[in-house]
TrEMBL record:
Residue spans of biased composition, Basic and acidic residues class: 16-37
Compositional bias segments (type: Basic residues): 73-82
Pfam families per UniProt: DUF2934
Species in which this protein is naturally found: Methylopila henanensis
Protein name as catalogued: DUF2934 domain-containing protein
Region annotation (Disordered) ranges: 16-82
Ranges of biased composition (kind: Low complexity): 57-72
Superkingdom field: Bacteria
């Protein structure tokens, strides 16, 4: 049985609980796999936390329709008094 989604969701929860640290996706995946009693060797190969940790929810929310990251909105300058 494939438990990838269960592990992904638990790894995401761990990531949130630990304050969303960068670069620890593999550690979170390992921990989630152990907690769920799943062989972590079946973990998908990913290059970023958003691929493993479930952060795709946040990444998708800020992505455009083509999946590309949305540009930051322009900063507005305060009006100068005359």
């Amino acid at each position: 049985m494939d438990h990838t989604q269960d592990v992904r969701e638990r790894a995401y929860q761990i990531w949130i609980e630990e304050g969303r640290p960068e670069g620890r996706e593999h550690e979170h995946w390992e921990r989630a796999s152990k907690e769920l009693g799943v062989d972590s060797a079946s973990a998908p190969q990913a290059s970023t936390a958003t691929d493993i940790g479930g952060g795709e929810k946040a990444a998708t929310a800020s992505a455009g329709p083509d999946g590309a990251a949305a540009a930051k909105p322009a900063r507005r300058r305060a009006a100068r008094p005359s």
